[in-house]
């Protein structure tokens, strides 16, 4: 088995917590849109989806800070130049969706004609983006962006997991060790 270096413990914890939350966000978003759900439950799901989305937006800021503060471990030396470029591009795309999805969701609710507030887990009100309330153009654009980026993000996550499995099968490189405390 090839030698691998690990990410910092803080990054590891944040990676797995955020991964779980993103999967819940994608599942709840699709359920809200595609399934016929009782109105009061749907309202609760919207508030829950928006609350977790806001927390993910805040967590993203910590994730980016952590990337600058803690050293990013070098990719295994067995990685070809092409694999290194693919890994960097894949991670960059994941980072893009991690911030673009909550931002587009925030813009969407802020530009809605309904103007419903976002109560983050019933503790505080997250403000709307100022100056765009009721703007149908911005609302349509951000709604479309949120939806299609949701699908593209799902695809990137599948590729991300597939890459980990492929490197293990083909080159016997266990990348999971880079994102875990033991092993
Ligand atoms: C953090 C990452 C997020 C992910 C992965 C995500 C994902 C999704 C997905 C997949 C849908 C279904 C889209 C469709 O099929 O039309 C959806 C819908 C929705 N999301 Fe998010 N979302 C996120 C953050 C947010 C945030 C921060 C807000 C608002 C503050 C938000 C508000 C909404 C709303 C209002 C809908 C319903 C859209 C509609 O009525 O057309 N989302 N989300
Ligand atoms: C579901 C949402 C997920 C997101 C948004 C995500 C995002 C990311 C990002 C951005 C990195 C690069 C970290 C950096 O260099 O700063 C990373 C690394 C990694 N992720 Fe995920 N991840 C997710 C789920 C998963 C899952 C389910 C697995 C399980 C196979 C996984 C395994 C890994 C591993 C092993 C690494 C280290 C890769 C390396 O640098 O060699 N991730 N992830």
Task: Describe the 3D structure.
- This protein is mainly alpha-helical and 183 residues long.
- It has a two-stranded antiparallel ribbon with strand order 1-2.
- It has one domain (9-179): Fumarate Reductase Cytochrome B subunit (Up-down Bundle), CATH 1.20.950.
- The termini are close together.
- It contains four helices and two strands; from the N terminus they run H-H-H-E-E-H.
- Strand 1 (118-120) and strand 2 (124-126) form a beta hairpin.
- It binds protoporphyrin IX containing FE (2 copies).
- The site of one protoporphyrin IX containing FE has 24 residues, from helix 1, helix 2, helix 3 and helix 4.
- One protoporphyrin IX containing FE binds next to helix 1, helix 2, helix 3 and helix 4.
Brief description of this entry?
67% of the residues lie in helices and 3% in strands.
Q: What order do the helices and strands come in, and which of them pair?
A:
Blueprint (H helix, E strand, L loop, with lengths): L8 H26 L4 H31 L11 H30 L7 E3 L3 E3 L9 H36 L12
Antiparallel strand pairs: 1-2
Helix pairs in contact: 1-2, 2-3, 3-4
The chain binds protoporphyrin IX containing FE (2 copies).
Q: According to CATH, what is the class?
A: Mainly Alpha
The CATH architecture designation is: Up-down Bundle
Envelope shape: elongated
Compute the CA-based radius of gyration.
19 Å
Percent of residues in helices: 55-70%
What small molecules does this complex bind?
protoporphyrin IX containing FE
Largest sheet: 2 strands, antiparallel
């Amino acid at each position: 088995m090839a030698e691998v270096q690990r990410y910092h413990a803080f990054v590891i914890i944040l990676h797995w917590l955020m991964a779980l939350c993103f999967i819940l966000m994608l599942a709840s978003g699709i359920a809200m849109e595609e399934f016929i759900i009782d109105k009061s439950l749907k309202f609760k799901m919207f508030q829950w989806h928006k609350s977790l989305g806001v927390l993910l937006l805040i967590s993203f800021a910590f994730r980016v800070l952590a990337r600058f503060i803690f050293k990013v471990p070098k990719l295994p030396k067995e990685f070809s130049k092409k694999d290194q470029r693919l890994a960097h591009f894949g991670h960059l795309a994941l980072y893009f969706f991690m911030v673009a999805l909550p931002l587009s969701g925030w813009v969407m609710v802020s530009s809605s004609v309904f103007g419903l507030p976002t109560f983050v887990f019933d503790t505080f009100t997250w403000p709307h983006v100022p100056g765009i309330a009721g703007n149908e153009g911005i609302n349509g654009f951000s709604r479309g962006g949120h939806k299609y980026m949701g699908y593209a993000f799902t695809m990137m996550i599948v590729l991300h997991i597939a890459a980990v499995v492929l490197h293990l099968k083909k080159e016997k490189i266990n990348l999971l060790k880079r994102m875990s405390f033991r092993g």
